[in-house]
Amino acid sequence: MSIELQIQNLRDQLNHHNYQYYVLDDPSVPDAEYDRLFQQLKALERDNPEFVTKDSPTQRVGAQPLSAFSQIKHEMPMLSLDNAFSAEDMQEFNRRILDRLQLDGADSIEFACEPKLDGIAVSLLYEEGVLIRGATRGDGTTGEDITLNVRTIPTIPLKLSGSGYPHRLEVRGEIYMPKSGFEAINKKALSQGLKAFVNPRNAAAGSLRQLDPKITASRPLEMCSYSIGIAEGGDLAEKHAEILKQLQGWGFRLNPLLEVVSGVKGCLDYYERVSELRNQLPYEIDGVVFKVNQLGQQEKLGFVSRAPRWAIAHKFPAQEEMTTVKTIEFQVGRTGAVTPVARLVPVFVGGVTVSNATLHNMDEVERLDVRAGDTVVIRRAGDVIPQVVKVVLERRPEKTVVVEPPEQCPVCQSKVERLEGEAVARCSGGLYCAAQRKEALKHFASRKAMDIDGLGDKLIEMLVDLDMLHTPAGLYQLTREELSKLERMGPKSADNLVNAINDSKATELPRFLYALGIREVGEATARALAMHFGELDPLMEASEEQLLEVQDVGPIVAKHIINFFDQSHNKEVISALIDQAGVHWQPIESKAQDQLILQGKTWVLTGKLEQMGRSEAKNHLLQLGAKVAGSVSAKTDCVVAGPGAGSKLSKATELGIPTMDEEGFIAFLNEQGIELE
Ligand code: IVH
Prior knowledge:
seven-stranded antiparallel sheet, about 20% strand, alpha+beta
């Protein structure tokens, strides 16, 4: 293909994606794909300047605004930012600045650093301190009048506070939807049979482009300001970060991670620190922004067509990527749940290679309408399991088939049942089903359960496939001779394994209860049950009312517990484990629940704990009766914050919740008679 055609082709694609993104709020491809096409086009145009035209997407930002809102011409264009994707890009950025300013010394430039909030840019115009207009960025020159909508956002002041502000002042910033609000409105939309938003940014965009401001008002939107546009009169500071502080004084929210650093080293450090915090932040960011702090220097540096020379966005690796679905298979879990899974052409996203993504249940398959052969957007944020976000319908091949739920278990051929009102379909084979048996055994042997060293998933699968293992009790009958015949198992490892299995007999009641794999009984519930009943027998005989007295046990969990102990084969396995194999535990003093010092309290762990792992800290807290939550709210009683703690700690301080560092926490544990492992 000729260069000219390649350029035209890229422009057509970018224009199409722009329209989807800016006009329809329905992005067709992930940002990373857009960025790649954009970079390709930029490179081709740089090397072939004769083909650069005014209407190229590189020469302007965004697309035409919708006609339903009235249009507003920005008095000062709203620019975009160039992107850096690596430390080298950042070095180059710094070098270009030093060259232009004819400065030396790697550290001579002061940069203001801010997170790059993933929302919608907005311009707010204040006259004599009163908000008179709000506008979207649109194509950078012309935006849409969203005054009525921005007025509904609580973090946007309608009237400035303090004094000394310019009599005409344009404040710019980002409107975004916090993660929690996004989850809540999506949950609500789905429950009403409406379409869910793809991500918080789309949700924010969709919420802002409502012709009815009441709808906008009902959406959890926030705004942080990051710069000014027009400013007439008043005294403005001479540094960017100081202007932001002035804005704060006049009533605008600033992002709390704003910092000033020296040189590119300072920028890269900031980038690292913020990347670590990224997943804990209550809102989405897709990178960090660096701005030359001194306005005098900014002026000297000026602009290129679409972006200032004095600022850059250092982007994080993409959390969304595109790939194709090879097939959709059904997996059978420990409780028989038959789960559709998309097998993918491997794709690098969120820092790992993803080749499978759970589709959860048939409702989800139907909602996404995902089929084998489809191109899909995969999202992996932090440690969260990869999700299929949407199907790129325009890339659907011609012949695809709708996924049908299996009627028989793909592993044991038992009937698959789906109860009224339940999203999940289950194999009715119980422990007859090899898949359920394998999962039950893996769970039984796992670290937080019976903790059998050296009995990994692969080995369990092999033992089940060879028909050598049927129930957890069977583990304790495995002999060294049998085991040493297995593939890749020498006499020494067979010995070690038998020893580890034997060692696991001396256990603790909470572990044992957890190991049984009763539905909905996780580690914390198992511990609460053990503490409450003190022994196994009273628990096995407990009535629903008695179970409901236990913290965290609701009617559903109580039913699962009763059902479990009602089944004769479960009672047989328990008896075989205790009476024949000799599994035992030290009696726990059954403390009445209200004697536990942290009963009814909610604690939050954040930052890095250096002397103990997160899960050890959590276990101690559970043992003392506390609940351990993932986020700070008014209901939190105490926050343990290690180094690197970010928003959770600041939120706790804001709310006046007591906090302690790791040392304080250890001292507290010692007072309760708990020594570290
Ligand atoms: S400064 C001339 N600062 O990123 C400088 N932008 O690609 C213009 N954004 O349209 C923007 N957080 O929507 C700036 N701290 C921040 C930002 C930020 C998010 C967005 C904004 C802008 C886009 C630039």
